[in-house]
Amino acid sequence: MDKGLKESIKKFMEKRGGCATGFAPVERFLEAPEKHHPSKICKDAKTVIVFGIPIPRGILLSPDYDLYGIHRSYHTLYRQLDEIGIALCNFIESEGPYAAMAVPSYAPMIFHGAEPWGLLSLKHAAVNAGLGAFGKSGQVYHPEYGSLLRLAAVVTSAEIPGDEIIEDDPCPKGCNACREKCPAGAFTESGDFKKMTCLPYSVKHAIYPLALKGAEALKYIERVVNTAGHDYWLACDQCLKVCPNNRRIRKQT
């Protein structure tokens, strides 16, 4: 167990935007689908390092241009996080006889039918790494940043101590704001979040209607989304705006 490497990684991440960072041993991923288990990403995987950068809270307060701000901030952070992931892999491999592979913040994704999956579920990885807990909206809530973090990860053969998992429910008692305000109706009567109801409503791209017409074209959905579909438009941010966890004042350092 390399505790020294963990501290070195924390310092490395502090110099790159102050990323929120957590560590999870692969034993915490027993319930991950086989094709999306860390062992399928990195040979001799021992640890998943998850990190995130928040979008500015002020975007959600914009009177007219919140969706414009979210569009650009999401896609800027995706690229920034991917660059940090590659740099972190190279740093880990320079520290010893380790292998490391970056998990993309967004694309490329793997499609199961019409449903997109990341190489690794970054939300579940974040929970396993102690960065947050699932809320009623299906999003992961960090104690300080709420659901505003964009996430990425690195899987490595280095054995690094894990962080403590957050067990507390992040949602304020009795709060159902995300369910009540969801214009897509992406919640069942029992309150379960339906990803494939939310996605077609909230994620838009000009190329999709042209490139994915008909059953034959849908065979290429993975290729289209992973090449031409990076800069999607987000057409809804209601769950972000109404959540009290996203309105908390951040700690002053």
Structure characterization notes:
This protein has nine helices and ten strands. The mean pLDDT is 92. It has helices spanning 3-14, 66-94, 122-128, 177-181, 195-202, 208-211, 214-218, 221-227, 238-242, and strands at 20-25, 47-54, 100-103, 110-112, 115-117, 133-134, 140-141, 149-156, 203-204, 233-234. The strands form four sheets. A four-stranded antiparallel beta sheet has the order 1-2-8-3, with helices on both faces. The two termini are 31 Å apart. The protein folds into two domains: 3-169, no CATH class; 177-239, no CATH class. The chain is of the alpha+beta class and 253 residues long. α1 (3-14) runs antiparallel to α2.
Largest sheet at a glance? Answer: 4 strands, antiparallel
Overall body shape: globular
The helix count comes to 9
Unreliable segments (pLDDT under 50, ≥5 consecutive)? Answer: none
Q: Calculate the terminal CA-CA distance, rounded to whole Å.
A: 31 Å
How many DSSP-defined strands?
10
Portion in strands:
15-25%
Instruction: Tell me, rounded to a whole number, the average pLDDT.
Output: 92
Topology order in helix (H) and strand (E) letters: HEEHEEEHEEEHHEHHHEH
Number of domains: 2
Q: Helicity, in percent?
A: 25-40%
Structural class, from helix and strand content?
Answer: alpha+beta
